[in-house]
């Protein structure tokens, strides 16, 4: 089995540290120490922390973009739940980005345009998702409802892990954090769900909140 390249090792270690300790708290010296290498060796591959963060942001975009695109074609609640679950898994893998967004944009303002573009893409997909559910008869929603639901879904996916840090730790759950986040986001649609889809939503409610 081929050993990971040094650049990949640096990026993987940086991601783990940023997720665990926060973007502002981790320096390149801390990353080097985590890897057992000299700061000079790390700086040979990445001259600055900015370059590391930029590369990780690109990786996040590549990981997250397929989830966004897939969500735009959803027309059933079970597909929506799966789409949300995959979305939260992608965000959880790079959770420092949205959790530490204020720090990220203040320290690395060159990423602001990319962040805004990703959010705009996410909003467009969420609007298509909600409109598709309305057209399929899954939800009864006006154009204004669709717009607000799309905003709420994107807000939930972007801010969930920041919110989670502000709440007391819960006892061990039978379901992963991403699955629970997907469920709670799905229930934003509850007042609008009609027909057989309401039975499926009630099934999910019983499954996760029993």
TrEMBL record:
Pfam families attached to this UniProt entry: TetR, TetR_N
Record feature DNA-binding region, as residue ranges: 27-46
Protein biosynthesis in keyword set: no
Swiss-Prot/TrEMBL keywords: DNA-binding
Domain HTH tetR-type: 4-64
The keyword DNA-binding is annotated on this UniProt entry: yes
Record protein name field: TetR/AcrR family transcriptional regulator
Species name: Pseudaquabacterium terrae
